[in-house]
Specification:
InterPro entries: TAT_signal
Shape: elongated
Strand content: over 45%
Largest sheet: 6 strands, mixed
Order of helices and strands: HHEEEEHEEEEEE
Number of domains: 1
Number of helices: 3
Radius of gyration: 17 Å
Keywords: Signal
Number of strands: 10
Distance between the termini: 25 Å
Amino acid sequence: MSFISTRRAAAVGSAALAAVLALGLAPANAAVNQAKHTFKMSDPSYKRTDRNGTFTGQVNMAGTVGRPAHMAWSFRISPAVRAIATGRMTCTAGHMQLPYHDRHTNVAVSYFWHSSVPNNRRNKEYTLYGSCKFRVNVGGRPGTANLGFSFKYSLFDGISRSSAAQDETAVEDSSYASELDIAYDS
């Protein structure tokens, strides 16, 4: 297990987390020091696009003051990655802090993956992760792709005392990370 994986497992202390890391379901670049996005009344949504796809997240902050909230999210694989895919995919999502999971098997690589994580509380840090596995052909070389992402976030209602809403602007772009790994056939 790598230094980053060891620190993550130690910080959360979860057997489920250890299994996630051992299976490689969370992207390797989802490091412990990854920044987080803070959902606020004035900024209840998030969207980032990178070379692997587009991730969105949103929370109804005004409608859930004083009680847990759902964090709705979506992920769509980029056209460039879809272009190398040769088959359907299986996608699995999970959460480092909450008992949440989502799995879709045998779906098209163009699938608009969306779900909702319940019971998010204010002033806590969370990490959602996901991974899609599918066959690819890159320049005549067949293989299996594993596209993983992670999203670190918290909720701040603007009422409670919190350090969660501080200095978000400098590190905002790194609260989402994705990684595409391809294992080519022998």
